[in-house]
Request: fold
Amino acid sequence: MSTEPNYTIKQDGEYEVVIQKSKFIAHFKRVTSEDEAQAFIQAIKKAHWNANHNCSAYIIGERNEFQKANDDGEPSGTAGLPMLEVLRKRELKDTVVVVTRYFGGIKLGGGGLIRAYGGTVSEGLDAVGIVERIPMQRLTLTVDYGWIGKVENELRQSSYLLDDIVYADTVTFHISVPVEETDAALAWLVDLTNGQGGLETQDQRIIERDFVR
Reply:
């Protein structure tokens, strides 16, 4: 798991716009492999078999290892690549988009197509939403009951997430911190309890939060 935050679409969805009488429909899906992306592209092509074009683009992988654009019959470089550039500019991962075009009788020209396909994807992303995915490290802090008030108060005022509190013979706080801040968080918790708390590192998880530029 990467320790760096990254971005992807909030949800699968569609966005439709009419440009110079042509209908453009952007279809978005979150995916984890090229096979998933290709399956989605083929499903859209099957559903919109009578469309003039079903152009596509995707970026997949922790380091953007898999990137592909397809013009599906539009002049080379006027559809898939502008779509891919929007995904890159938004720094999105694990995202595939297919833009279906039903030709309305008015030719847009190369520049017009680039603006139409890129703009449809950009507006569509605003509509479906973008989330920031943050890798979090789970920690547990176990203390005697005399520490409850101070520890809970300090945790709730901190930037860390207090996931749960378990009451038994002692009290265990379940905490999530950004992976990159793990060492600093551990040091802070030791200082907070004067070294009298029991600290353990657990597994990692991803949290998502809405992202607006």
About this structure: Residues 162 and 175 are 5 Å apart (CA to CA). The chain has five helices and ten strands. The mean pLDDT is 95.
